[in-house]
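Minutes, project check-in
Item: structure for the 85-residue chain
Input as provided by the requester:
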Amino acid sequence: MVPIIVTIILVLSLVFSISFVIRKRKKAGITGIKSALTPICFYLIAVVNILAYWFNFLGLVNWGMTVVLLILGAYFTRFMPIADK
């Protein structure tokens, strides 16, 4: 019962977070896919880990995908716009 509740909370927080990021990007006038690749990679990490947990796919492949997505997310931060103060 607890894993189902935790998964529901995580999915709801992901949906809220994605909608928040989209609204902030529209408000700031940021367009283009390159600047959105960092959040996409980080959201994919959460989705991969949820799927790995539910389908008993925890292991080296899951860790490898998580590390690759983390490195890609860090790499694509160079395309994010610099905030004005």
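Outcome recorded: The two ends are 47 Å apart (CA to CA).
No further action items on this chain.
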